[in-house]
Design goal:
The protein is mainly alpha-helical and about 170 residues long. It contains 4 helices and 4 strands, in the order βββααααβ. A two-stranded antiparallel ribbon has the order 1-2. A two-stranded antiparallel sheet has the order 3-4. The relative contact order is 0.18.
Length: about 170
């Protein structure tokens, strides 16, 4: 039907003839949303500081569990998955874990929507694996709980610090 002869006049369903749906009226364009930008220098500086703190957290946790509480936290070399770990090796492992988590966080920020949620889940699950690992060995219950506690504190330190670092390293323009 020709719009001129339409019983509705020149308008069809509230739209002037020839104007398509979805065109914004002049002066009513939506404001552009700020685009997040990653400051990689801040992210990696925070990641390095997190690695230092994770290593120191491992040392403090071992001093508390081994020295103060007198709990043997790692099995002798031939006694299961845990092996014979030294304080330096655990501190180094915690630092490496923090740097790997920083690399993961960098990837998530540039490649995924809602990277903070993915990061929280991944860190939470990785920490859970490490906390449960001592319970798969033949260690005493004291040693299992002490080792799990050390891993839990390290995981919480890495996860909480890097989550905070990510908020500071992503700018909205």
């Amino acid at each position: 039907m020709d719009p001129q002869n339409s019983p509705y006049g020149h308008q069809s369903y509230g739209q002037p003839y020839g104007q398509s749906y979805g065109q914004a009226e002049p002066g009513y364009a939506p404001e552009p949303q700020p685009q997040p930008r990653l400051d990689a220098g801040k992210l990696w500086a925070g990641g390095l500081m997190t690695a230092v703190i994770a290593a120191l957290t491992a040392v403090v946790a071992l001093l508390l569990v081994r020295g103060v509480l007198d709990v043997p936290v790692f099995a002798p070399e031939g006694d299961g998955l845990m092996g014979n770990a030294t304080t330096g090796a655990l501190a180094g492992g915690a630092a490496v874990a923090a740097l790997v988590a920083t690399a993961l966080l960098n990837l998530l920020i540039v490649a995924t929507p809602r990277p903070e949620r993915f990061f929280a889940w991944i860190i939470g699950l990785a920490t859970a694996v490490m906390v449960l690992l001592p319970f798969t060995t033949g260690l005493t219950w004291q040693a299992k709980l002490g080792t799990a506690g050390v891993y839990l504190v390290i995981g919480i330190a890495i996860g909480s610090l890097l989550s905070s670092v990510a908020r500071g390293a992503v700018r909205r323009y």
